[in-house]
Amino acid sequence: MRNTHPILDHIDHHRDDLIGLADRVWGMPETLYAEYRSCAEHAQMLRDKGFALTENVAGIPTAVMGEAGTGGPIIAILGEYDALPGLSQQAGIAEPHPIEAGGNGHGCGHNLLGSAALLAACALKDWLAETGTPGRVRYYGCPAEEGGAAKTFMVRDGAFADVDAAITWHPDCMTRVDDPESLANTRMDFTFHGRAAHAAASPHLGRSALDAAELMSVGVNYLREHVPQDARIHYAYLDAGGPAPNVVQAKARVRYSIRALHLAEMLSIVERVKNVARGAALMTDTTVEMQVFSAVSNNLVNEVMDRTMDRVLQEIGGVPFDTADHDFARAIQATLSPADIASPYRGVAQIPRLDQALFDGLIPLRPGGEKMIGSTDVSDVTWAVPTTEVLVATHAIGTPAHSWQIVAQGKSPAAHKGMTHAAKAMARCAQMLFADPALLAEAQAEHAARLAVTPYICPLPADLAPPLQPRPTPV
Q1: For the segment 404-421, what is each residue's pLDDT rounded down to a tens digit?
Q2: What is the pTM of this model?
């Protein structure tokens, strides 16, 4: 690809340093609110690149912010660096091979996400200084996107209060502006308390917390028939009461994830799930505690921001993969099912099935197709400021998110090309906003108009603190 704007040359200047950061973070996978080493790596890179550093953002020790520039508007570039549990995997091979049995792995590409965002911020810092353009770029290193809702806590605590616009990206198998839909989501813990007893000699004296948790599951299964079709309810046992079947379980804890297309709808379903829990406790003569763990909103779309990002993609084109990249992607695809490989095409109605393992083109804006929707704490930032998110190809078509195959591709040459391309898209989009005050004002006016119709309501309880993890003891 031929660079078409000077800011893209600044990307190339910092590229190798930020690829090194991505690979280091890949090698130290840390899960929600425990990203102490990954955050420290990002903080050190911000220092090395000359940013003014703010640590412990919103009281979160694994959140960091770097700022550069003077005056003018403030544009945020959002990064992440959290990993997922149970996805340890060696890089560069097309077969499952954990580095550490049961260990963590970057199964959603957040090692790339944070590093590309910081790369874009570095290029913008240089461009602002070189041109004397008034404005400030901020890199936000955000932890705990995978279920911890750190950005929601950051929004609630005012971390984006003076920001004028925000830009982010996510690794994907196809390059395009992300669709605006996402699911509002609450993760909530239900802890049942009963009474222990000998399960054979005196079961009548016991009150089973495990029975209550299982009855709650039955009740929620019936509830699923009576919620909107886009709603989702999932659960996981965190404490099933212990390994002894001859003891009536005195305590059980289950976590529910409750999702819907709109926040108000999601909050309504939460109340119905809570009623099911109360009923299960009543049936078993137990008690139940209910505690929100985390929560995120649905996206607030900004068409001006998305159209601007789409213009940038049309300018820079697709990711320039080479023959070796395609060869490794084909090896990865050999581990996938036909349904896996077909799945991305269901979401992009205008694109025919391609006979290639890597996608090096562009998907048009709003391509139609079947909606396959998840949740993200980026959504709460979209309610705070005009925001756009771009998806950029970094892995083989059809690779499922949260899989060992994503981890295996996480430090490949194709992944490095994709993250560099994402940085160019984000930096160029931000540069257009800095250079055109009318464009930024148009995005802000759209944002204000949408908020006037539907004001933001933070999905987190006002007194809820983020579920921080202790800093690990040095070895």
Answers
A1: 999 999 999 999 999 999
A2: 0.95
